[in-house]
User: Which sequence fits this backbone?
């Protein structure tokens, strides 16, 4: 089969079948974030007198820093898969798509780095 | 149903914006495109959310900055939009996880679960809005 998607007779370099791992990761990262969301929502709706001491106190615990960092990592991977889906659906020229994908990775990586700085300052 | 009685439906290939606007999506379709749009909005506004987290956590002084930034009407509008995006994405995502394990795939149940997602996420959103405007 000499189709342009194939290198040699077997190897498929584009197409949906390469996405199984990403597809699964997007689901698992979603579950991680959903659990964190429920905890945060309980704090948000249950809390009264939103104060600096209470809010910063919550994030001063090591377990909260770790949980939040795990969520940042999950969010970055989840968003990467989702945003890449958007580029793959709507942006067909390979060069522009590649540029957008690289931009997405840098954007998300920078956001996680900023998140780490914030968390470790508290 | 035989082929003779089946109505001829328009076939769209390389759908254009005029067709997209004219096409009547079912509830599950509206939910799905809003799932994508809300995700994209949150992706683009992620630095703003982190900025708010930064200001709210760093010090008493920055907490004051956080309070004054979030009391601005435009910032409140953006936060309301982000709140909607988050809650819609969250609820639609949970529905998606059920469908991934083949629960509620039938036409009618998927329509009902889509409507349920709109109902739950909008109620949560109203509660969120009341909370940030200090109603409770």
Assistant:
């Amino acid at each position: 089969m000499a189709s342009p998607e194939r290198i040699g007779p077997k190897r498929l370099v584009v197409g949906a079948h390469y996405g199984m791992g990403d597809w699964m990761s997007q689901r698992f990262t979603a579950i991680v974030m959903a659990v964190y969301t429920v905890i945060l929502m309980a704090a948000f709706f249950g809390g009264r007198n939103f104060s600096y001491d209470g809010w910063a106190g919550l994030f001063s615990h090591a377990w909260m820093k770790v949980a939040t960092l795990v969520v940042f990592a999950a969010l970055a991977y989840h968003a990467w898969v989702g945003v890449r889906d958007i580029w793959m659906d709507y942006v067909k020229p390979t060069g522009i798509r590649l540029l957008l994908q690289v931009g997405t990775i840098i954007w998300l990586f920078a956001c996680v780095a900023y998140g780490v700085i914030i968390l470790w300052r508290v | 149903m035989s082929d003779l009685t089946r109505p001829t439906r328009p076939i769209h290939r390389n759908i254009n914006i005029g067709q997209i606007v004219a096409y009547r999506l079912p509830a599950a379709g509206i939910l799905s495109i809003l799932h994508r749009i809300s995700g994209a909005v949150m992706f683009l506004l992620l630095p703003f959310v982190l900025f708010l987290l930064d200001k709210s956590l760093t010090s008493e002084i920055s907490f004051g900055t956080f309070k004054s930034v979030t009391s601005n009407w435009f910032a409140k509008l953006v936060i309301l939009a982000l709140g909607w995006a988050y809650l819609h994405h969250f609820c639609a995502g949970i529905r998606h996880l059920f469908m991934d394990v083949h629960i509620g795939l039938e036409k009618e149940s998927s329509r009902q679960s889509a409507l349920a997602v709109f109902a739950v996420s909008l109620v949560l959103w109203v509660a969120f809005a009341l909370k940030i405007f200090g109603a409770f």
